């Protein structure tokens, strides 16, 4: 099974620097990497000021970048169909750029809006983060630009400040009303750890050690290949529903409702909002529980927590789909310790916590179940908690 972490980052860094030189003439000022993520637990909680527990994936977006002084921004991606997008930084405005280029251009816009006198740049991206799979390929694009600009212009921004800038680019420039989890994961995760995020105070995030292999465990990621899209209105409607529920309850955010107050809140709320609130409150509790189990050195105990999280997303939040439900049930039937959809939902990917020796059997069972149901086979890989965004030397290696 593809383990992602064995992909040769040094030669990829060389490759992206070489491609940059061919495209733009001359070497880049540097090469940066920003990863995709899977979230272990804590879904649709970030925009409710709640908790999440993501890990960074080994799959990442590499960016070769060189600053310019003439206010021009040139963007090219190995996955972008061969076209170079050329823009003037002064003309950047919400809605002015569409497609993949809106994410990186949005970060330059957000930095400028925040008063940083950053100019243009030549940028070339090459990504191994699958797109449309709910694995945060857009956050990886944004965060690569954020860390590169921070270094090129000596801005000295903290990880959470860079994540906030990337989130602003996505919210205000690209028009996707996401929370801050994906950007925090891409910037602030570390290898062999999960990131305990409190979205109300991202600066207080904590690393929770997570040595899956050392415990004889594996984390299987299954991309159902049902394309997920946060920009299609369903995500925004859920977020608006949560905000309305909080307002009706007289709370700053749903994070401020605890399990004790849940029955009364459910009774008081309109029937369409009550299940959303139940999901958010129980999901926040699942994150707290998961962190406790990890701190006790018992990652296998995450299994039932993941499965309960999926039931809540399926039955209360209603963001699963037949393919994600099938992947979860087939993985559990084949002996996974726990499984759930990860990310925003409406398709995307499922994670399964498995005993390492069961990885291939569980993956095979899910593939067989998809074939039997007439679905395209899922794409499978095993994830290891990996490093967040960082600078790579053009010749390879971490600087
Ligand atoms: C998407 C969003 F971008 C995140 O902010 C988060 O809300 C997630 O869906 C659901 O937990 O990935």
UniProtKB/TrEMBL annotation:
<dbReference type="InterPro" id="IPR006204">
    <property type="entry name" value="GHMP_kinase_N_dom"/>
</dbReference>
<dbReference type="InterPro" id="IPR000705">
    <property type="entry name" value="Galactokinase"/>
</dbReference>
<dbReference type="InterPro" id="IPR013750">
    <property type="entry name" value="GHMP_kinase_C_dom"/>
</dbReference>
<keyword id="KW-0479">Metal-binding</keyword>
<dbReference type="Pfam" id="PF08544">
    <property type="entry name" value="GHMP_kinases_C"/>
</dbReference>
<dbReference type="GO" id="GO:0004335">
    <property type="term" value="F:galactokinase activity"/>
</dbReference>
<keyword id="KW-0963">Cytoplasm</keyword>
<dbReference type="GO" id="GO:0046872">
    <property type="term" value="F:metal ion binding"/>
</dbReference>
<keyword id="KW-0067">ATP-binding</keyword>
<dbReference type="InterPro" id="IPR019539">
    <property type="entry name" value="GalKase_N"/>
</dbReference>
<dbReference type="InterPro" id="IPR020568">
    <property type="entry name" value="Ribosomal_Su5_D2-typ_SF"/>
</dbReference>
<keyword id="KW-0460">Magnesium</keyword>
<dbReference type="GO" id="GO:0005524">
    <property type="term" value="F:ATP binding"/>
</dbReference>
<keyword id="KW-0418">Kinase</keyword>
<dbReference type="InterPro" id="IPR006203">
    <property type="entry name" value="GHMP_knse_ATP-bd_CS"/>
</dbReference>
<feature type="domain" description="GHMP kinase N-terminal">
    <location>
        <begin position="103"/>
        <end position="188"/>
    </location>
</feature>
<dbReference type="InterPro" id="IPR014721">
    <property type="entry name" value="Ribsml_uS5_D2-typ_fold_subgr"/>
</dbReference>
<comment type="similarity">
    <text>Belongs to the GHMP kinase family. GalK subfamily.</text>
</comment>
<dbReference type="Pfam" id="PF00288">
    <property type="entry name" value="GHMP_kinases_N"/>
</dbReference>
<feature type="domain" description="Galactokinase N-terminal">
    <location>
        <begin position="19"/>
        <end position="66"/>
    </location>
</feature>
<dbReference type="InterPro" id="IPR036554">
    <property type="entry name" value="GHMP_kinase_C_sf"/>
</dbReference>
<dbReference type="InterPro" id="IPR006206">
    <property type="entry name" value="Mevalonate/galactokinase"/>
</dbReference>
<dbReference type="Pfam" id="PF10509">
    <property type="entry name" value="GalKase_gal_bdg"/>
</dbReference>
<keyword id="KW-0119">Carbohydrate metabolism</keyword>
<keyword id="KW-0547">Nucleotide-binding</keyword>
<keyword id="KW-0808">Transferase</keyword>
<dbReference type="GO" id="GO:0005829">
    <property type="term" value="C:cytosol"/>
</dbReference>
<feature type="domain" description="GHMP kinase C-terminal">
    <location>
        <begin position="294"/>
        <end position="371"/>
    </location>
</feature>
<protein>
    <recommendedName>
        <fullName>Galactokinase</fullName>
        <ecNumber>2.7.1.6</ecNumber>
    </recommendedName>
</protein>
<dbReference type="GO" id="GO:0006012">
    <property type="term" value="P:galactose metabolic process"/>
</dbReference>
<keyword id="KW-0299">Galactose metabolism</keyword>
<dbReference type="InterPro" id="IPR019741">
    <property type="entry name" value="Galactokinase_CS"/>
</dbReference>
């Amino acid at each position: 099974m593809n383990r992602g972490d064995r992909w040769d980052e040094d030669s990829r860094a060389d490759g992206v620097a070489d491609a940059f030189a061919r495209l733009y003439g001359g070497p880049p000022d540097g090469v940066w990497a920003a990863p995709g993520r899977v979230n272990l637990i804590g879904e649709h909680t970030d925009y409710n000021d709640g908790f999440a527990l993501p890990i960074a994936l080994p799959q990442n977006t590499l960016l070769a970048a060189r600053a310019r002084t003439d206010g021009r921004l040139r963007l090219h991606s190995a996955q972008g169909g061969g076209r170079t997008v050329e823009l003037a930084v002064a003309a950047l405005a919400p809605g002015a750029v569409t497609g993949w280029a809106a994410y990186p251009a949005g970060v330059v816009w957000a930095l400028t809006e925040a008063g940083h006198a950053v100019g243009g740049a030549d940028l070339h991206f090459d990504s191994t983060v699958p797109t449309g799979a709910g694995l945060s390929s857009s956050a990886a694009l944004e965060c690569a630009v954020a860390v590169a600009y921070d270094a090129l212009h000596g801005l000295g921004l903290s990880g959470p400040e860079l994540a906030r800038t990337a989130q602003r680019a996505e919210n205000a420039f690209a028009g996707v009303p996401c929370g801050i989890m994906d950007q925090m994961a891409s910037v602030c995760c570390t290898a062999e750890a999960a990131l305990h995020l409190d979205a109300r105070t991202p600066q207080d995030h904590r690393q929770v050690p997570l040595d899956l292999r050392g415990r004889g465990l594996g984390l299987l990621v299954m991309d159902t290949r049902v394309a997920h899209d946060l920009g299609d209105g369903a995500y925004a409607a859920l977020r608006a529903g949560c905000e309305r529920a909080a307002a009706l309850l007289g709370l700053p955010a749903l994070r401020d409702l605890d399990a004790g107050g849940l029955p009364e809140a459910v009774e008081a709320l309109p029937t369409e909002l009550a299940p959303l609130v139940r999901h958010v409150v129980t999901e926040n509790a699942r994150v707290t529980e998961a962190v406790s189990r990890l701190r006790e050195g018992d990652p296998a105990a995450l299994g039932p927590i993941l499965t309960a999280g999926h039931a809540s997303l399926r039955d209360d939040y209603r963001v699963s789909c037949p393919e994600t439900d099938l992947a979860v049930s087939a993985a559990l039937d084949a002996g996974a310790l726990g499984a759930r959809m990860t990310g925003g939902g409406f398709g995307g990917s499922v994670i399964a916590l498995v005993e390492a020796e069961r990885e291939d059997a569980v993956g095979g069972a899910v593939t067989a179940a998809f074939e039997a149901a007439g679905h395209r086979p899922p794409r499978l890989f095993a994830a290891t908690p990996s490093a967040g965004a960082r600078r790579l030397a053009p010749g390879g290696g971490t600087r």
